[in-house]
Specification:
Blueprint: E1 2-11, E2 14-24, E3 29-33, H1 40-47, E4 55-60, E5 63-64, H2 70-76, E6 78-81, H3 93-99, H4 108-121, H5 124-127, H6 138-151, E7 156-160, H7 168-183, E8 187-192, H8 195-201, E9 204-209, E10 212-218, H9 219-224, H10 226-233
Helix pairs in contact: 3-6
The structure holds adenosine-5'-triphosphate.
Adenosine-5'-triphosphate binds near residues 37, 39, 40, 42 and 83.
Length: about 240
Amino acid sequence: MLQLKNVDVCYGSFKALNNISLSVDTGELVVLLGANGAGKSTLFNTISGLNKPVAGSIEFEGKRIGGLKPSAVVSSGIVQCAEGRKLFPQMTVMQNLMMGAYVHRRDKAGNKKYLDEVLELYPILKEKEHQPAGSLSGGQQQMVAIGRALMSRPRLLMLDEPSLGLAPLVVRQMFETIQKINSLGTTVLLAEQNAFAALKIATRAYVMENGQLVMEGDRETMLGNEQVRKAYIGA
Ligand code: ATP
């Protein structure tokens, strides 16, 4: 579905991504592990068109998307839910959700169907639909952010650190819904520091260090790998 080959990205003279080759198959839930500053957000921003690669190729469903504008990447079926949620805090929950439907604004019936699915996934958002998004708890704001991304109808959903700053119980529920979104048919690429919880729901995972992918394996391999356990799980 998604294939990156030998991708390099630079900030000035600093090479933030170095020779990245990564693939995501349809239906997978692929986790990207890595410490702060490893380059996970840079990689996501590159796939979503915010950063331009200086080398390498990015293909999605057989079409080259490297270098496309972010809006064109969204239209092609890849939607990113960025770190830090980035909601419009003064706007209501419903207005925030509907921002995600902008690319499909002419398809009112379709948007209603997707909205119903989002509200079924996160029933609390129905109760809070008229409240300003900024008045919600951190976990509920994360639901709005993911819901808004789903309203753009991704075939590949990229989630950057969705558990950041959330309480442990809320984190658990967050991972359960991410797994549900995946099982309902959306392919997921998930960057996480919360390695154990992320690996438990993963099909496969990559480890990123200093702008390079240094390891790749399926869930069992990664959970059983001593290096991964020491560096990212703390066991
Ligand atoms: P975090 O989880 O903290 O966001 P990350 O793994 O997502 O970490 P990136 O944010 O992608 O890492 O950063 C990778 C490297 O690129 C870091 O060394 C960072 O300081 C640097 N970097 C990120 N954005 C820029 C920028 N706009 N200009 C210059 N350097 C940057």
